[in-house]
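Journal club side-thread
Mid-discussion, someone asked how the predicted structure for our own chain would compare to the paper's figures. Pasting it here so we can look after the session.
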Amino acid sequence: MTTPDPDGLLAEQLLRLTRRVHRIQKRHLERHDLGVTPAQSRLLRTLAHYASPPRMADLAERLEVVPRAVTTLVDGLETNGKVRRVPDPANRRVTRIELTDEGRTTLRELRGARRSAAEEILAPLTEKERQVLGVLLNTLIEGDGGQRC
């Protein structure tokens, strides 16, 4: 007879929730017909946090992905007119990525789609439960004493 594994159950629940969030977010993005994938959406949101256009390596580091993944995402977003590659004024060998006006508009629409997705996901929870969930998620995100794994 095996003993129950509560940590294993929690891990499975977290993975299932992550997949559900991804599916719902993807559905909301498609419903808003923004022409971006969830990964491209994340890159646009990350790009918006920079005061000046970052290098692709900066984006890769912030997104915690390999640079090649950022190149693929930027290629797709550039093709759709949402970002553009610009030369670095201080080093002509460096290319920076900046949002276009269309990219900024898409970003505003993305926020609405994400809000709708969040409302759908959190609908079963009371306000108090949402507050508790927020505290718990922050604890998990920060990890052991705020150190990243």
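Post-session note: The radius of gyration is 19 Å.
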